[in-house]
Write a structure and sequence with these properties.
The complex is a heterodimer of chains A (501) and B (614). Chain A is α+β, with helices and mostly antiparallel strands and 501 residues long. Chain A folds into two domains: 168 residues, Up-down Bundle (f41 fragment of flagellin, N-terminal domain); 197 residues, no CATH class. Chain A has twelve helices and 14 strands. Chain A has a four-stranded antiparallel sheet. In chain A, strands 5-8-9-10 form a four-stranded mixed sheet, covered by helices on one side. Chain A has a two-stranded antiparallel ribbon with strand order 1-2. The longest helix of chain A has 49 residues. The radius of gyration of chain A is 43 Å and the shape is rod-shaped. By secondary structure, chain B is an alpha+beta fold. Chain B has twelve helices and 23 strands. In chain B, the strands form seven sheets. In chain B, strands 10-19-13-14-16-15 form a six-stranded mixed sheet. A four-stranded antiparallel sheet of chain B has the order 3-4-5-6. Chain B has a four-stranded antiparallel sheet with strand order 11-12-18-17, covered by helices on one side. Chain B starts with a helix and ends with a helix. The chains are: A alpha+beta (501), B alpha+beta (614). Chains A and B meet through helix 1, helix 2, helix 3, strand 2 and strand 13 of A and helix 2, helix 3, helix 10, helix 11 and helix 12 of B.
Chain lengths: 501, 614
């Protein structure tokens, strides 16, 4: 710096230098006040593009954080709901024990109403929503998954509920009281046959005997099947003939008749004078046994199957008996949604969990969809619905038999052995808990990463106060020196030393 | 020799001293006048009859033509740099700093956040409304930035107009000064004043246009631009500026004046010829050159970057990618692709390898021919796909060469092509064949949809026709009015689909993060112009970085130029400046000389008196 030169132009130059220093002074003051290193894009220099990419990464994490928080709220709600469902499941199972009629058959009245109220709870849980979003609707989160319990059971607006659909199925299965079987005896042969090729009622499966006097014709497997019992001689006392039956819900039943020479009781037939008389006796005894089964076990199996067809699982179509004249119906048809309550109105996907996914990181996705029609929940609903439409009374002789048959089936439906099957309430709980663990892990990683990013951004953008203060002091000194020097030189002119006057 | 000679000498000395005093007083009084050149008196001793006396030789004005030339150049360059800096500083203020409210990266980040929320809660009305709002913010930001850039171009245009006016006045004055200097009869002092005026005018002109000044012996000056166009030679040439009115992104300079839609800057030379200064690239430095450069290159480039971002954002939503189906024939394998959905401006991409080198080709459906390599290293060509598939086949065959088999069938909506490799020879391979088509309609069952549209809610396909749909798209981009009135369209890709279905939001997020875009061939002729490439977030970063970089470079240039100016000023000061100390010292000297001469006269007087008293 040629500040010592006494010329005027150098003074101007030093003035411009002083101006620059003043500007710098202003910049430093601003930095000190705002803590920001730069005010413009240009000032940011080479850190500009780095800063931009850090900020982009940081804002992406912010948006993921929003998603994670939302997903977490939903998963927490899921957690509550699934644990309540599990409680109801175990309560329901223990409430329905075969032969547990209670004192004076008190449970005849209470069990169905308890099942109804349990069903009500389950439906309420399945209809849980978080801020208008239904948790058990698969990907149709804006649709209420399950209608109210009353609508489900009793129907509404001209649509048939489960009670009606089950009753139609029951009529179709029981038929004229023989479970859609016909029984005849001709000479020494009793013939039991299915009334037509149709899916209802008892289906013949096997026939067996301990007697050498009996020749059996086994069902041939082609519907309608028939089964023949021919008495080639007289059976001896205690000989057994067993007819195996398949029930509408796939369970098996058998009727065993024992030959007796005395007065026949239930499950016995009297050996007659000859084969023809014995066949007639056998036919009478068989008819009575079939009618008894048709009033109890068949009804339970029918209701159970109706529940399977009404409360459809994933990918299944709701079916109904073609009718009226249900007692002679020969066909099941797909239910018409305009006259049948659709029990599940959410999205139906084979992969329920995958129906809802949330991207919670660039490379992490959680699946947390749930559908009310998954195995676990649908079986719980079926079991409770079947029990809740029952009407047991002491005056009805079939009550005990039906109670036992239904209780056995429900126990089986809700047994702990199903817990490890896909879609069970247990598996749902586990899978959603896994999703929550994943989100919480990702969230922790992101929080740590976000902290680092924030640090880096602040390193790039903020300015250390001490450094600015020091620079400010140094600049102040330089500026003061320059002022002093400039003013000194300005005064250093011959004009000031010329004699006046 | 005699007393009279002494008297003569003393008298001449006194008169020289008086002249010198006049000059000293002029120097001192003009010590602070800008552009004043220090003057000095040349004194000649001349041999008179029996005496040698001092005579005033004339007033000399300090002048150094080399220094003057350096000064003229530096003035042009400094004003070029400062004009650029002013505008670019304004531009970077519009863009804001990363993370500032309303800066492009912040707006885009919040748009992404809104989409992320949308994918988690598509069934929530408020979330959808927020997403639409964020989309509007993004389009408004682009609109505003685009308007700002065009505003700066408009300012440049206006400034060119006013600069041309000042320039013509200065040149006219300079012509007057020249004509007065040419008259030799003027006295020395007024000539010096005219020359000062001349130099002031020259530096004024050089601020606006880069000129080379040539000084003639008579003191007149002639000016020509550095590129050699004569501006002043006896008579002044006239600059004309024909403004083009309002500036929009589509107002671009064109070498062909009939296609150019910006103001035209011409020069009518002394001989009456008119030349287009911009077209001839006659201006290299100075305010005018800076303004023209900003208007036609720098700001156009900034607009191009905004347009690329707008196009990318729009295409990320509306593009549906369809992969070709595997095809083979006679041991050769490759892919087949239907071209039917590819609209004007859409394209298909072909990844292939030839001799071990992986190559990519993008074929745009357009009647406008194009062929360039984009910022991502992909070759881009265009072909008209509206007719027969054979047009595409012949184009591809020409590019790919004989080691590929290209065949096609059908025309228009049923057109399809098949590209096969060379089979057993194994030197070539077809990697993929993908159509990138813009969807038509909002609920066609396709997750893609036109969230952002052009004017009048038209779909943006990036058509190359005319100036290209992308030119100025940042100014026109808007959120589809159908989506604004019914935000369920953000979710329902088919009428009646569940509002809980996040497919559409997820697809948008994936494409925003995954699709790679590249600026089209630059609208400016500048080969060094930045061209963007990458994901949208990357392009936004590049744009902001580029703007910052331009401003920083302009600032550095300006600093350098002002340093140069400072040092030249300092030298000018030493050479031309008035040093008051020197002048004072001379004053004392002259005072002494005057007193001494007076003493000589009084002594001669005494001697004469004594002689008379004899």
């Amino acid at each position: 710096m040629t500040i010592i030169n006494r010329q005027l132009y150098p003074l101007q130059t030093s003035m411009s230098l002083i101006n620059k220093m003043t500007d710098q002074f202003g910049t430093l003051q601003q930095q000190l006040a705002t803590g920001q290193k730069a005010n413009t894009l240009a000032d940011m220099g080479t850190s500009r593009s780095y800063d931009l990419s850090l900020r982009a990464a940081s804002s992406r994490i912010d948006s993921y954080a929003g998603s994670i928080q939302m997903v977490n709220t939903r998963l927490t709600m899921f957690n509550t709901v699934t644990s309540q469902l599990a409680t109801i499941q175990s309560t329901a199972q223990s409430a329905m024990t075969p032969s547990a009629y209670g004192s004076s058959n008190g449970n005849f009245g209470t069990t169905p109403s308890l099942a109804y109220s349990n069903l009500d709870q389950v439906v309420n849980l399945l209809d849980t929503d978080v801020a208008g979003r239904y948790l058990f609707s698969g990907n149709k989160t804006d649709a209420v998954p399950v209608p109210s319990t009353d609508e489900l059971i009793n129907g509404a607006n001209g649509k048939a509920g489960f009670a009606q659909v089950a009753s139609e199925r029951q009529q179709a299965d029981v038929g004229d009281g023989m479970g859609r079987l016909t029984l005849s005896s001709t000479a020494d042969t009793a013939t039991l046959a299915e009334d037509a090729a149709q899916p209802f009622g008892f289906k013949l499966s096997t026939a067996s005997t301990t007697s050498a006097a009996v020749t059996l014709t086994q069902p041939n497997g082609t519907a309608p099947q028939s089964l023949g019992v021919q008495f080639t001689a007289l059976p001896t006392d205690g000989d057994k003939i067993t007819v195996g039956l398949t029930l509408p819900d796939g369970t098996s039943d058998s009727i065993t008749l024992t030959a007796t020479t005395g007065t026949p009781g239930a499950g016995q037939f009297q050996v007659g004078a000859d084969a023809t008389a014995t066949a007639a006796n056998f036919t009478t005894a068989l008819q009575s046994s079939i009618q008894s089964e048709a009033g109890t076990t068949l009804v339970a199996a029918s209701n159970n199957q109706a529940a399977n067809e009404f409360f459809t699982g994933q990918g299944q179509t709701q079916m109904r008996v073609q009718g009226p004249n249900f007692a002679t119906a020969t066909q099941l048809v797909a239910a018409d949604p305009t006259n049948t309550v659709t029990w599940y109105q959410g999205g139906d996907s084979a992969d329920a969990r995958g129906s809802i996914t949330a991207k919670i990181d660039d490379h992490a996705t959680v699946q947390y969809g749930a559908q009310a029609n998954e195995n676990g929940t649908v079986n719980l609903v079926r079991a409770l619905a079947v029990m809740s439409i029952q009407n047991f009374s002491n005056s009805d002789a079939t009550s005990g038999g039906r109670f036992d048959a239904i209780a056995t089936r429900n126990q089986d439906r809700l047994a702990a052995t199903h817990a490890s099957e896909p879609g069970s309430i247990n598996m749902l709980t586990v899978e959603l808990a896994n999703a929550q663990t994943t989100t919480s892990n990702v969230s922790k990683q992101q929080t740590a990463y976000q902290a680092q990013l924030t640090n880096m951004v602040s390193d790039l953008e903020t300015v250390p106060q001490e450094q600015v203060a020091t620079e400010l002091l140094a600049l102040q000194t330089r500026l003061q020196a320059s002022y002093q020097a400039t003013s000194l030189i300005a005064h250093l002119s011959l004009v000031n030393y010329l004699p006046t006057g | 020799m005699g007393l009279s000679a002494s008297l003569d000498n003393a008298l001449s000395g006194m008169s020289v001293s008086q002249n010198a005093l006049e000059i000293v007083s002029r120097n001192v009084s003009n010590a602070g006048t800008p552009g004043y050149h220090v003057q000095s008196l040349s004194v000649i001793d001349s041999l008179g009859a029996g005496s040698i006396y001092a005579r005033t030789g004339g007033v000399e004005r300090a002048f150094n033509s080399t220094l003057q030339a350096a000064y003229t150049t530096a003035t042009s360059d400094a004003s070029y740099a400062s004009t650029r800096l002013d505008t670019l500083n304004r531009l970077q203020t519009y863009f804001g700093k990363p993370g500032d409210d309303g800066s492009l990266d912040t707006v885009y980040a919040s748009f992404q956040t809104a989409l992320q929320s949308l994918s988690t809660s598509p069934d929530d009305y408020a979330t959808r409304a927020t997403a639409v709002q964020a989309a509007q913010n993004l389009s408004t930001s682009l609109n505003t930035l685009s308007a700002n850039v065009q505003g700066l171009r408009q300012d440049a245009e206006t400034q060119i107009g006013s600069t041309v006016k000042t320039l013509n006045q200065s040149l006219q004055s300079l012509q007057d000064v020249n004509s007065r200097l040419a008259i030799q009869t003027n006295d020395a002092a007024s000539r010096a004043a005219l020359e000062d005026q001349r130099d002031r005018l020259v530096s004024q002109v050089s601020e606006m246009v880069d000129v080379k000044a040539t000084y003639a012996n008579d003191g007149t000056v002639s000016l020509m631009t550095r590129s050699g166009v004569s501006i002043l030679d006896g008579k002044a040439a006239v600059f004309n500026f024909q403004p083009a009115g309002a500036m929009t992104a589509t107002s671009l300079f064109n070498i062909d004046p009939s296609k150019s839609s910006v103001g035209q800057l011409t020069l009518t030379s002394t001989s009456g010829n008119t030349i287009d200064l911009v077209q001839q690239k006659a201006l290299q430095s100075g305010t005018l050159a800076a303004l023209v450069n900003l208007r036609d290159t720098t700001l156009v480039q900034a607009q191009g970057e905004l347009d690329s971002i707008a196009a990318g954002v729009s295409k990320a939503f509306s593009t549906t990618q369809t992969s070709g189906t595997a095809a083979s024939a006679g041991g050769k394998s490759g892919y087949s692709l239907d071209l039917g959905t590819i609209r004007d401006g859409d394209d298909f991409t072909l990844d292939y390898s030839q001799g071990g080198t992986d190559k990519s080709l993008r074929v745009i459906n357009s009647t406008t021919p194009t062929d360039y390599v984009d910022a991502n290293g992909m070759r881009v060509v265009s072909v008209d796909m509206s007719g027969d598939a054979s047009a595409v086949v012949s184009k591809l065959s020409a590019i790919l060469g004989p080691s590929f088999t290209v065949s096609g069938s059908g025309s228009g909506p049923s057109a399809a092509i098949t590209v096969l490799d060379d089979g057993a020879a194994g030197t070539t391979d077809v990697g993929s064949l993908t159509a990138n088509a813009t969807v038509t309609g909002l609920q066609t069952g396709d997750a893609a949809f036109s969230l952002f549209t052009d004017n009048n809610n038209n779909d943006f396909t990036g058509s190359l026709s005319g100036q290209g749909q992308q030119t100025g798209f940042a100014a026109r981009i808007q959120v589809n009015s159908a989506v604004q009135s019914d935000n369920r369209l953000l979710v329902q890709y088919q009428s009646g689909t569940s509002l809980g279905d996040p497919t559409r939001a997820n697809q948008a997020l994936n494409q925003l993060q995954g699709l790679i875009f590249a600026s089209p061939q630059s609208v400016t002729t500048d080969p060094a112009a930045t061209r963007l490439g990458g994901t949208i977030s990357g392009m936004i970063s590049q744009t902001m970085d580029d703007v910052g970089n331009m401003a920083a470079t302009a600032s550095t240039n300006n600093d350098t130029q002002s340093m140069t100016m400072d040092s030249i000023n300092q030298r000018l000061g030493t050479a031309y400046g008035v040093n008051v100390d020197d002048e004072m010292a001379r004053l004392i000297q002259l005072q002494n000389a005057y007193s001494a001469n007076a003493r000589v006269i009084s002594t001669v007087q005494d001697l004469m008196n004594q002689l008379m008293q004899i």
